[in-house]
Specification:
The structure is a single chain. The chain has about 350 residues and is an alpha/beta fold. The protein has three domains: about 180 residues, Rossmann fold (3-Layer(aba) Sandwich), CATH 3.40.50.300; about 80 residues, Orthogonal Bundle (DNA polymerase, domain 1); about 60 residues, Beta-grasp domain (Ubiquitin-like (UB roll)), CATH 3.10.20.30. The chain is built from 15 helices and twelve strands. The strands form three sheets. It has a six-stranded mixed β-sheet, with helices on both faces. Strands 3-9-8 form a three-stranded mixed β-sheet, sandwiched between helices. The longest helix is centred in the middle third of the chain and has 33 residues. Bound molecules: guanosine-5'-triphosphate and magnesium ion (MG).
Amino acid sequence: MKIGLIGLPKSGKTTLFNLLTGAHVATARYDTGRAELHTGVARVPDPRVDTLARLFKPKKTTYASFEVVDLAGIARGERAGLETKDFRNADALLHVVRAFPDEALGAPDPRRDIVDLETELLLADLEVVDRRLERLVASIKRQRKEAEVREQGILLRCKAELEQETPLRAVALTPDDDKAIRGFTFLSQKPILHCVNVAEKDLADGPRAADRYALADVTARPRTRVGWVSAVIEMEVAQLAGEEQQAFLADLGLEEPAIHRVLSDCFALLGLISFFTVGEDEVRAWPIPEGTRAQEAAGTVHSDIARGFIRAEVNSYDELVAVGGAFADLRAKGQLRLEGKDYVVRDGEVCHFRFNVGK
Ligand SMILES: Nc1nc2c(ncn2[C@@H]2O[C@H](COP(=O)(O)OP(=O)(O)OP(=O)(O)O)[C@@H](O)[C@H]2O)c(=O)[nH]1
Ligand SMILES: [Mg+2]
């Protein structure tokens, strides 16, 4: 899964990128004139994985992760950067919204910036739709092909919605229609997390950012979330570890680093859950869309396991932890369930797949 960092210039995107991925890309208050794209990997923290790793002492522990791409700021009316290929195939957008004052940019206005950014996404999509429609009209005039006529119908509907300023993520499409337009990688169709980057002095007010900046209507939109962070304070948090970090967070009145929350928000925004596999070799979290059946879940581990799927041995994380990781005890208690290929895997379940690949 891939997250695209997006936002107006100097909103703190690269700072957040560094925090999420552990990179050290330079950030600056002034414009360097370099519009480079950064990519990295963000590990999704999960205390359950930590606990399972303590129980099984595996050689390797693997957390769920996101690929993160960081784009240069998109100023109002300057959408060219949005064409970047590496960015267009992101699964979700993480919009960094400036809520800290800046000498050059002036007082922050998160609401205005959210509207401006969404407008750029809508206009970028509208350009793509218009270009394609022009070609379709010409092609249909030459020779009428049913598939093209159908595509034209869907795109005309998208155009009408975009012109009403409705992002495509809020448009209910049938799975077939959705498939037909997937190749366009429409930006306004991607789920979005607006992450308000609050000023240091407003940290305590962070959880109320949506109220403070009158974003209730934004929060209510489909496949949209509003979160918050103080990138500057998170940098200080990131420089500490262990007890020192805990003490600093407690001083600030925070339970955990805000980037943990940003990542779990992205996870939820994408409708993902995790199941776990455990053993001496590896303890691992596997992200899957909610509603995934056991056979497909097995396929994320390996396609052979899906192909030769027989049964999944399933138990809950809590049950396994309660017996200290002893599967024999679970079996004795009748808590080790055997599930078939259509079983819908739930968040936090520990799965062991039985499979057989014939020759
Ligand atoms: N006061 C304050 N400054 C911040 C905060 N977040 C980032 N900055 C500063 O703002 C400047 C720009 O930060 P970047 O992370 O480079 O912002 P960006 O959105 O990547 O900028 P562009 O890619 O140029 O659009 C840096 O000097 C940061 O230190 C914040 O929460 N508070
Ligand atoms: Mg940047």
